[in-house]
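We close this part of the discussion by returning to an individual protein. Part of our work consisted of pairing the sequence of a single chain with a tokenised description of its backbone. What the numbers capture is local backbone geometry rather than side-chain detail. The amino acid sequence and the backbone structure tokens for this protein are reproduced below.
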Amino acid sequence: MSKISPVLISKLLISFLIPLFILNMPIDWIPIPDLTVIQQRLLAIFALAALLWVLEPVPVFATSILIITLELVMISDKGLHLFRTVPDGHSFGTLMNYTDILGAFSSPIIILFMGGFALAIAAAKYELDNNLARVLLKPFGNQPKFIMLGLMLITAVFSMFMSNTATTVMMLALLGPIVASAPKGDIGIKALVLCIPIAANTGGIATPIGTPPNAIALQYLTGENSIDFLTWMMMGIPFVIIQLSFAWWLLQKLFPSSEDKMVLKLEGKFQKNWRAIVVYITFASTILLWITTKLHGMNTYVVSIIPLAVFTLTGIMGKEEIKKINWDVLWLVAGGIAIGIGLDKTGLASAMAHSIDYASLSPVAVVLTLSIICWLMANFMSNTATANLLMPIAAAIAASMESLSAVGGIQGVLVVVAFSASLGMILPVSTPPNSLAYSTGLIESKDMAKTGIIIGIVGLIIVYIAMLFLT
């Protein structure tokens, strides 16, 4: 019987004692005005989730299941009677509908992941991943750093025009043959895995359609404040180039490869049996449908279930292949979604965003505060949900404060907030590309946290410098 290490015990104690302190401390001590009892409970659950995901004393998917369970028991309308009793002295708040919490596992994002896993499983079964990698990566040679550069460039360009999650699914399908070519224990593999979500998260910043926070910002940039597609790209592409160049250098420093050359085992030809042809057509059609959502009307999530239906009906995916779907990752993502739903439905996210007196701050301090809040929140909940929450606040503040013209006015403020939302990538639950990369089993959450914090902070600094010198 293995012993529990002192390190594991200390991680567990930290993870549970801090949330317990938050849960039992007087509400008046928490620097969020008009905090309700329900919001205080969710704040404790939120702290527990953050600590368990970062320290990882238990598997990250187990943390997600615990979070969903605690939300159901402590803040839902079908929870324990003890937690549905209204205490005296403070506002109790509104209990969440338990179906909203359980709905985290039937979220459209989960379907997107299942479709992505189906594509990856079918591609590996019929060697499509091997053949695509051979074609796309051939120009980048056989040095690990240039193979990584190739992966990043291809991922970033695709992410500018299609869902970064869909792009990550496609690019991770190329990773299997590359990993097979590397010597066992080479930490350079971690760099190759991490470069894909980093490039996917960053690449989408370059265009108005690349990531939802950009599109949300444009909803508030109308009339004389509007920004056209080309103007956005003129701001976004230089940022993406600088950010990806730094990320490429950083990954080489943090996870240096032990090999000077990597001979990719990518021999072979495209299979020509009917099932392989169905996989090729379905793979290409799914990507085409993802790119052209505005033409046919189906969104990314609806498109994602099509390959799953095609592969199961044709026998390309049977019972054994269905078992290969990364169910632990689906639970991990569901936990992140449940936290986001809780923050939104209980009003805690809004309360946290409004807890600062923006009127008393200088123009630069206002933008920095909004940006940092946005970045912090985007690491723990969907960057889309974060942008939806903060963008109207940022727009209202920018419209009411004439002094913000010194930092680009409403345009400058909303662009900074949009960029900040896309830079939140510390945890496996921060973005779907992160979750997909984590699902490979080749990286740990601490690897993602280390790179995500550095890249996020450097990205924010680049944005601030650009804001100060270009306005």
